[in-house]
Amino acid sequence: MPPSSNSSTDGYDLVLRLLVGVLAVVVPLSHLAWLSGNIAAYLTGITWAPYQPTNALLHPERLWPQAGETSLLISTRIVPVLLLLALGAAAGILWSRHKNRSGGRKKITDMAKARDIQPLMAKAITNKARSLRPSLKDAKHIDAKDTGILLGNLQGSRHEVRMGFEDVAVAIMAPRSGKTTSLAIPSMLAAPGPVLLTSNKAAGDAFTTAYDARTQVGRVWTMDPQQIAHAAREMWWNPLASAKTLDGAGRLAGHFLAASVDASAQGDFWSKAGSNILSQLLLAAALDERPITDIMQWLAFPADRTPLDILRDHDFAAVAAQLKGTVEGPPETRDGIYETARQYAAALLNTEIAAWVTPQKDVPEFRPAQFVTSTDTLFLLSKDGGGGASALIAACADSVMRAATAQAERAGGRLDPPMLAILDEAANVCKISDLPDLYSHLGSRGIIPITILQSYRQGQKVWGDAGMDAMWSASTVKVIGAGIDDPDFADKLSRLIGDHDVETTSTSHSDSGKSTSVSMRQERILPADAIRALPKGTALCFATGMRAAMLDLRPWYQEPGADELSAASAHASKGITARAIAKHALQQDDYGSAA
């Protein structure tokens, strides 16, 4: 049987590839031979040969007849081969380093290019900063940190991607995916104005890393009621300062409710009734300028008429009537309502926690209205599931943002410099129930919130489906990091990124030879499984009105000055450890003395 034309074609392809491979070696080798031979000739006083690389490799004696055989062997054979090997090794090392710098990540070529996200690029973001911040209007040079918050670099490039000082952001990043090292800490270090950070960690986290650096630009306040950092109590804050109205007292009670009950259960009778009683008692305590801990005594003894008298004396007769109706209602119902309220505020029974929110001698009071016009920093620390303690953290963060809103209105509409509010672990330690609603206007006031969650479902648990959807929609910038294991959310992101045309080549064989056809089909740019497998150090960025972009994150420890920050963080972490050991030893001594 005669050989098929298909076999002949395959043979021709193999010969062609071999020929290309030989040329890839012979061409550079012949040029190296010509160059090396001429250098040797020049050093030995022989005439420079004309440009004939082929002869230099095959017949060097024709170009340099005066040179010895050994000299020609070394200069046109051995040296060129060694040089070619060295160049190949150098190219391999450079390529390996390039892959290591990018973490071996494959660049997604159909994601947004720099031209697609121009509003987040340096020139546009700088021009926008001039229009948003009057203090920068006439400045000849503006530092990058004064123009916006760095999110990372456009993948595979040096183009910095920044969110502006009118954006509001949600970051959904799993643990150890860079949410603190690449987003929270760099944002704090570069913030031009006041900074608020909530967290449930201290050692080796944003608290220890940024603490010393922030002391260089303003005062650092730390509220640590559960002693995560074992910080000395060098401040106190009055949560009743903004509770002298029914709305203010209701907001404060709402923080205790949100810290204790998930969104799905906040609408039942006992939750709402307990929250109402709590708000009425908080209002009475605020009006009479009492410490917040007084409400615990009133909750313990419903028959105490003191809150009723205070409300009536301050012209809150309707509120007093509501409170009186509950107190004089059926005992079973009254006791259930009061017990619910007692559970919400139970953290105030802890004297160490209560000390942070009651007047303290020789300890300065933290005043949100003064903080928002400074360049100070406020660390709000609480453990996961802190109950009433996390309610105080959320209430303090809320009071700061509300004070910032009021100051912005007095200043013409915006804060300058803007205030950065990084709500890390927001679903655990900072459950502000109406945060999704606040997102609709905070950015326009120069208040830049960055809410950091571990998953989309975590937000749904705190704010409900509608609330989390509202926050997602209101966020002008969304950052999605590694570790997205929710298939529905990953598919939603994949659909938002969109499709692209993929060229498909098909080959068929027949007796007459091989034929090739090309067709186009639609395919997801980034399917759900690829989003789930996003490598650490990368993130997706969704900005309003722009295509989704892939970012290379910029962790603080790879930036200039990282050594100093690392040393400061290590020193601060050791301080936390030392304080924890000293406190434990003191407790052991107390137990021993009691025994």
TrEMBL record:
Residues 418-536 form the TraD/TraG TraM recognition site domain. Keywords: Cell membrane, Membrane, Transmembrane, Transmembrane helix. The lineage of its organism: Bacteria, Bacillati, Actinomycetota, Actinomycetes, Kitasatosporales. It is found in: Cell membrane. Pfam families: TraG-D_C (PF12696). It is a multi-pass membrane protein. One of its GO terms (cellular component) is plasma membrane. Its main location: membrane. The chain crosses the membrane at residues 14-34, 78-96. This is TraM recognition domain-containing protein. InterPro entries: P-loop_NTPase, T4SS-coupling_protein, TraG-D_C. Signal peptide: none annotated.
